[in-house]
Every structure is written in C-alpha cells, then in structure tokens.
Amino acid sequence: MSVGFTTKTRKGLVALAVAAGLALGAAGCGGGDGGGNSKPQASASKSSEADPSTQEGQSAAPLAELQGSDGLLLQITSAQRDSGGFVTVNGVLKNDGSQLVVIPAALSGNETEIIRNGRSLGGATLVDSKGKKRYYVLRDTDGRPLTTTGFSTLQSGETLAVFMQFPAPPADTTEVTLQLPTFSSGTIKISG
C-alpha cells in the first residue's frame, strides 16, 4: 500500500467518525422542551401518550377548567412553586368540539418579542388579588416565552400537554387567578 492511499483512508475514517459523533450529539440534544423549541410542531400529538393528569406531582382531578372559544378547554393539572422563585403551571389543552380548531393567535399575547417566537401561551398571566399584582409568563435570554410553543391546530378530541412558567408570588400567597386571552379565568392553588 502506498502512503497516499493510507492517508486518504484515515481521512475518510476520521470524517466518518466526526459525522457519526455529530449526528449522535444532535439526537441526544433534542426532545427536551424547555420552552426553546427551534422547530415548531405543526399539530399537537394524540392523547395516546402518557396521561398528563397521572404524572408525578399532578392530581387526578384538575385544579381548574378554563373554557375557550370553539370548544377549546384548558384543564390545569398542577401549579407548583419551586425553590428558584418560579411557579410552573401544567395542564392539558383539549379540543372538546366536533371540528378541527385553529388555536387563536391571541393566546400568545400582544408583546412583539413573544409574538416573534410563534404561537404560544405567552399571553397568560397569574393575578394575585391579595397582593394586588399580576405576573406575566417568563422569557429566556432570547425573548422566547417559557411556555408550550409551536402548536397551531387541534383535531376534534385531541389533547396537548401544556406548561407556563411565572415568577412566584410571595410564599404566603397560595391562591391566584390564571388568565389566558379568549378563555374564562380560573382560580388555582399553588403547591410547594
């Protein structure tokens, strides 16, 4: 074998190993929502996935049910305070109607920075009537809302697990009102 053939073979093997490593690394980085999806989902997944109401830390009965337009229903399954000073609200968005529903753009709110990042629940707020304060959805350093993003439609009967993260009200505030554009308001209890 010549030295040139051996060098070409090594370069090819190194390039193949680097490409495989990059592919595995990219696959390992995907999947975690974290509110920063770079590729929005075209549609929500079917309810055949794990039932969010039975996940750890979530009760079987919803904390609140908010009625929306066109048969949309938002069931709040948990509102958990964490040690970092945040409240994460989890729920299930369901199309209770008989037809495909286009998710209203108003759910994203009206702030330019949030709207620029696509459909989301960025218009949600928590209202602490005791402390007379309103808490808006948090954003990451790139201005993306810390909520479920990238959904546009729900088929009849289809569900989508959703979350929203807010600054935590004072520790002695355990009840807040969740408001979301185009939906009725609902009072929820914060745990933790």
What does this structure look like?
With 192 residues, the chain is α+β, with helices and mostly antiparallel strands. It has two domains: 1-30; 52-189, Immunoglobulin-like, CATH 2.60.40. The chain has helices spanning 3-29, 112-115, and strands spanning 64-67, 72-81, 86-95, 101-102, 125-128, 133-136, 153-154, 159-167, 175-179, 186-189. A hairpin with a 6-residue loop joins strand 9 and strand 10 (186-189). This is Secreted protein. Residues 38-58 have a biased composition (Polar residues).
| Biggest sheet layout | 4 strands, antiparallel
**CATH architecture tag of the largest domain:** Sandwich
Order the strands across the largest sheet as they lie in space: 1-2-3-8
Query: Which stretches of 5+ consecutive residues score pLDDT under 50?
Result: 12-58
CATH topology of the largest domain: Immunoglobulin-like
Helix fraction bin: 10-25%
By secondary-structure content and strand pairing, the structural class works out as: alpha+beta
- Taking all Cα atoms into account, the compactness measure Rg is 22 Å
Number of domains: 2
The number of distinct helices, counting runs of at least 4 residues, comes to: 2
The string of secondary-structure elements, in order, is: HEEEEHEEEEEE
In the CATH scheme, the class of the largest domain would be Mainly Beta
Span between termini: 69 Å
Mean pLDDT reading:
78
The tally of strands reads 10
Principal-axis shape? globular
Portion of residues in beta strands equals 25-35%
